[in-house]
Request: fold
Amino acid sequence: MNEASSPQLRISDQDRESALAALGDHLTVGRIDIDEFGERSAKVTAAKTRGELSEVFLDLPEPHPVFDKPQAAVSEPEKPMTPWAGISPMQRVMGALLPILFIATIALIVTTDLTWWFILVPIGISAVGEGIWGKGWDNAHKKLAKQHRRELRHGRHGELES
Reply:
């Protein structure tokens, strides 16, 4: 018996979820009734090792729980994601300068003899930026930061897709 199939090996939450899903399949096809499902689910929830979990399925055919590969308890800390990831330097510069350009244009129109159509300059720059980099290009860093916070909240940041 190799180490990966050892009944003394501790199980993960993913192993418990796999066992509960397998129990649900057995309930669905009528191999166990709802009361037995509740009893076995309680045993699955309380199980600490693969051996304890396997005992719940001794008298049942497949499906059985699928155990994940044992992983190292300590992982390398993740590098923090910068909110500027994926944003070009030109987008950063233009995104920072555009609000200043709007304010400066309005100030020039109010304090000088410039006509109102001069406001079309920053509007035109916005339109060109949107055409090149897509809608909301000047707020892309805010969207990335919001996505990063959402991933952290849901525990998906840094997980590997299988």
User: Anything to note?
Assistant: The first helix runs from residue 13 to 29.
